[in-house]
Design a protein that fits this description.
18 helices, single chain, extended
């Protein structure tokens, strides 16, 4: 009878997860959460959150399958200690979610983010704020703390779904440092007003003095009440002036007046089209068909005018420019933070607001969000916190790679191995470390095959040693 050695070597596909664990360790994720959450379970809350972060960044597995996810994983390598996958059974995770809620999800998200500001020297000169709606499936008839899941203005054009709101404050290359869940019918204008009253306190926790940063937000920030509150709290801001303000149209018209005057002088009455005409000669023929193999001979000719309306590109150009204009409103002094701020600088900072929209795309991945089947609002808030905790790690990896490439004036193999100066975390995780196999014999680990040149290149850009694949 053949005897099989069940204690022999094992091979585990770890993919890019050891890199994620390294970044989580860089911001002391586990230790920070364990210090803040009172938990009577054998496995601390910090380890459970790390497990959820790894699951989230593994390829977007639903969070409720955490036990299945770690069933065949090298937990000692990925979590820092050997853990039975049964630890992550649903009822155990639910108890951890409850303890995290009791400790305050906002605080638990904020502290690792504060660690990231220091560990990665994040630029906090400008902080971008925005909100988004997260639609959920289910009845959710109760109005429970900490927020009300209800119908509201759906930013995903899904008014059929109940929702809750997520607000986020990001710095340096879209890294979130403040985040919270809010009622599903919350107004952006109201949320902005509340934030203006507390943002200085939040930023102070990150070691940022009041008035030492610029608050960047979309046009929902601009209301008379919000402008007054920003002034009272000494908050510098950059935002877009809504078209509902008369000053918006006036500013665009005034800015374009010079070009319009030049166009009027050049084009008389200011017509935006020209009529191009041509006299066309048309032959007239007698009745009947011509004989076979003979050509018809005209009996006379008629004439008609053929007209074509041609847009005047030069005259229309200023109109297009005006239609594409938006007005920025800011109270940032010309001299601020030891530098001069030009209109171009303000525009550049405002355009970075697009980055927070990319972050919301990350949070709204349907594989994750549609898997929130928890019926207690406080338990929903905790996954709502785990996703924003995963997001900074995702952005920090991307930021580190790009800064490395910028500083060394080089490129790196991107999609289809084409050289790029803008690698993404998605590119790295989905194409560069697939099938990274680790051979384990006893307590010794070794890569089943050497890392490829492009993998070594990415590790250098990530500032990560190859030892993360073999040492817990």
């Amino acid at each position: 009878m053949l005897n099989l050695d069940t204690d022999g070597p094992t091979i585990t596909d770890v993919g890019h997860l050891p890199i994620v664990k390294h970044y989580a360790k860089s911001i002391n994720l586990v230790g920070t959460i364990d210090a803040m959450v009172q938990n009577q379970m054998h496995t601390g809350a910090g380890l459970t959150v790390l497990a959820m972060v790894l699951d989230t960044l593994s390829g977007r597995n639903p969070l409720y399958r955490l036990q299945r996810f770690f069933a065949e994983k090298d937990t000692e390598l990925l979590l820092g200690q050997s853990v039975d996958s049964a630890t992550f059974a649903g009822h155990n995770v639910a108890r951890v979610l409850d303890s995290i809620y009791d400790a305050g999800t906002g605080r638990i998200f904020s502290q690792p983010a504060r660690n990231a500001v220091g560990a990665f020297a994040l630029d906090t000169a400008c902080a971008h704020y925005d909100t988004t709606s997260i639609g959920v499936f289910g009845d959710y008839d109760r109005i429970d703390p900490p927020f009300d899941i209800t119908y509201g203005r759906s930013k995903d054009k899904r008014p059929d779904l109940k929702q809750f709101m997520v607000e986020m404050f990001c710095v340096d290359r879209d890294v979130p440092i403040i985040g919270a869940t809010r009622d599903g019918n919350s107004s952006d204008k109201t949320l902005n007003n509340e934030l203006l009253g507390s943002i200085s306190k939040h930023m102070a926790r990150h070691g940022i003095d009041p008035g030492a940063f610029i608050h960047v937000a979309d046009s929902a920030l601009i209301t008379h009440d919000n402008l007054k509150r920003a002034e009272q709290n000494g908050i510098h801001f950059i935002s877009r002036l809504p078209a509902t303000f008369n000053e918006c149209a006036r500013a665009i018209e005034q800015a374009d007046a010079r070009q319009a005057a030049e166009q009027l002088a050049a084009h008389g009455q200011g017509s935006y089209h020209r009529i191009r005409t041509e006299v066309v000669q048309r032959p007239k023929f007698g009745r009947g068909r011509p004989a076979k193999n003979t050509q018809r001979t005209p009996v006379g000719y008629g004439y008609r005018i053929q007209a074509e309306i041609v847009p005047d590109a030069e005259a229309i150009a200023p109109l297009k420019l005006g239609a594409g204009c938006f007005v920025l409103l800011s109270n940032v002094p010309i001299s601020f933070q030891g530098r001069q701020w030009t209109a171009s600088d303000l525009l550049s900072r405002y355009k970075e607001q697009y980055g927070i929209e990319k972050n919301f795309g990350f949070l709204k991945d349907p594989v994750i969000v549609n898997s929130i089947f928890l019926k207690k609002n406080e338990r929903i808030e905790t996954p709502g916190m785990v996703l924003p905790i995963s997001l900074p790690i995702w952005r920090l990896m991307e930021r580190t790679m790009r800064r490395h490439i910028e500083r060394n004036n080089q490129t790196i193999a991107g999609w289809d191995n084409r050289q790029t100066t803008r690698p993404t975390s998605f590119m790295m995780t989905t194409t560069k470390f697939i099938n990274t196999l680790v051979l384990t014999v006893g307590d010794q680990r070794k890569l089943a095959r050497p890392l490829r040149a492009e993998q070594i290149e990415f590790l250098a850009a990530l500032k990560v040693s190859s030892e993360v694949f073999t040492f817990p």
